[in-house]
């Protein structure tokens, strides 16, 4: 993306964004990754380069530039969803079960109480 006419250098769209435009003339053509996803790549050329937060994690952030911005579900909860966008995607372990794990990706991580 070039910020001014007659400039021969290009600037990359920052991590957490992408542009599908060839010959873009403004950073306004760098689109943010959707919440629930992130991109560590500079100069990403499509939305498919925005990777999903894995099951057990979520992000509310647009333009997340690192997987570390995908937050873990709390202990006692789990999420099977990819691209989760809120803590609401994390479900409580069923009654009679528990989990001390942060970022649990299935209800199988919830253990039976003894």
Automatic annotation (TrEMBL):
Taxonomic superkingdom:
Eukaryota
Coiled-coil stretches are none
Q: Which InterPro entries match?
A: Growth_fac_rcpt_cys_sf
Q: Hey, what's the signal peptide range on this chain?
A: none
Q: Which PANTHER family match?
A: GENE 9195-RELATED (PTHR46104:SF1), GENE 9195-RELATED-RELATED (PTHR46104)
Please identify the protein, giving its name as recorded: Tyrosine-protein kinase ephrin type A/B receptor-like domain-containing protein
Organism for this UniProt entry: Cryptomonas curvata
């Amino acid at each position: 993306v070039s910020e001014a006419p007659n400039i021969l250098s290009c600037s990359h769209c920052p991590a957490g964004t992408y542009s599908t435009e060839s010959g873009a003339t403004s950073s306004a053509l760098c689109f943010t990754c959707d919440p629930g996803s992130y991109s560590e790549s500079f100069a990403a050329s499509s939305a498919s380069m925005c990777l999903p937060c894995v099951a057990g994690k979520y992000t509310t952030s647009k333009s997340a530039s690192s997987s570390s911005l995908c937050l873990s579900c709390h202990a006692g909860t789990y999420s099977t969803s990819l691209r989760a966008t809120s803590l609401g995607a994390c479900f409580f372990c069923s009654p009679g079960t528990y989990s001390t794990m942060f970022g649990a990706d299935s209800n199988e991580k919830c253990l039976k109480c003894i």
